[in-house]
Amino acid sequence: MRAVIFDLDGTLIDAAPDITAKLNKVLEADGHAALSLAEVHSMIGDGAKVLVERAFAARSSTAQPRHHEKFLKIYAENPVINTVIYEGALETLEALQAEGRPLGICTNKPMHATREVLDALNLTRFFGAVAGGDSTPYRKPDPRHLAAVLSELEVTDAIMIGDHANDMKAAAGLKLPAIFCAWGYGQGEGDARAETPADLPGIIAAMG
C-alpha cells in the first residue's frame, strides 16, 4: 500500500478563523481595516510570510519583516481557539492507520505552529513524518519539500492529498498521484477529486 501525505490547513483542519483573527491583530495595530474570513481564505497556502504580504497588499500597504515576526509570535501563542478538524477527517485517518499505511504531513505552515496544532487536536499520533514550511530549505510547490517527508517515512511511493494547486504541483514534480480536496481554501486539479473527507478512503483504496 502507498503512503499517504496530507496537507494540513484546508485539508485536515479548518484553521482559517484563528489565522484571520491573528492576522487582523497585526493589520489593526498598523491602523488597517480587518480582513474578512473569505478574504483570508484566498490568501492561505503559500506560508506565513506570503500570507502577511498578501494581507497588507489587500490594504494597499507593504508588509515589513516586523509584521511577519509579529504574526508568527501572536499565532504561536495560541493557534487553536476556533480551529477544528473537518468532519470525517479523523475517521479517515483512523481507517488509513488501521490499514497500516505510513502517513505524513507536508504543509507550508511554520513547523512550530504545525506541531502546536497537531498536538492540541490530538493528531500527532497519526503521522510518522511532518514537514513544515520552514523545516526544509524548500516549500511546496517545490517537490523537494514533499520528498523530505517521503525520505523521513522511508518510502518512495505515496499519494498526496491537499486543497491547493501547490499540493498538486509538488506531487506532479515527483510523478506521484494527488487527490484534490474540494472543501478547502484553494483551487487545483489532481488525479482525483474528493468532495468530502469521507470520500478519501475509497479514492485512496482505488489508487492502491
CATH fold name of the largest domain: Rossmann fold
* Main beta-sheet strand count, sense and barrel state: 6 strands, parallel
What is the assigned CATH homologous superfamily of the largest domain?
HAD superfamily/HAD-like
Output mean pLDDT.
Answer: 96
Across the major sheet, the strand order is 5-4-1-6-7-8
Count of individual beta strands: 8
What is the level-2 CATH architecture name of the largest domain?
Answer: 3-Layer(aba) Sandwich
Measure the end-to-end span.
6 Å
Strand content: 5-15%
**Count of folded domains:** 2
What structural class do helix, strand and pairing data support?
A: alpha/beta
Rg from alpha-carbon coordinates: 16 Å
The total of helices stands at 9
Shape: globular
Helix residue percentage? 40-55%
Topology readout:
Blueprint: E1 3-6, E2 13-14, H1 16-29, H2 37-41, H3 48-57, H4 65-77, E3 84-85, H5 89-99, E4 103-106, H6 111-120, E5 129-131, H7 143-153, E6 158-162, H8 165-173, E7 178-181, E8 192-194, H9 200-207
Parallel strand pairs: 1-4, 1-6, 4-5, 6-7, 7-8
Antiparallel strand pairs: 2-3
Helix pairs in contact: 1-4, 3-4, 7-8
Can you walk me through this structure?
With 208 residues, this protein is of the alpha/beta class. It has two domains: 3-14 and 83-207, HAD superfamily/HAD-like (Rossmann fold, 3-Layer(aba) Sandwich); 16-77, DNA polymerase, domain 1 (Orthogonal Bundle), CATH 1.10.150. Helices cover 44% and strands 13% of the residues. The chain contains nine helices and eight strands. It has helices at residues 16-29, 37-41, 48-57, 65-77, 89-99, 111-120, 143-153, 165-173, 200-207, and strands at 3-6, 13-14, 84-85, 103-106, 129-131, 158-162, 178-181, 192-194. The strands form two sheets. A six-stranded parallel β-sheet has the order 5-4-1-6-7-8, with helices on both faces. The protein has a two-stranded antiparallel sheet with strand order 2-3. Helix 8 (165-173) links the parallel strand 6 and strand 7. Helix 1 packs across helix 4 and helix 3 packs across helix 4 (65-77). The longest helix has 14 residues, at 16-29. The N and C termini lie close together (6 Å). The mean pLDDT is 96.
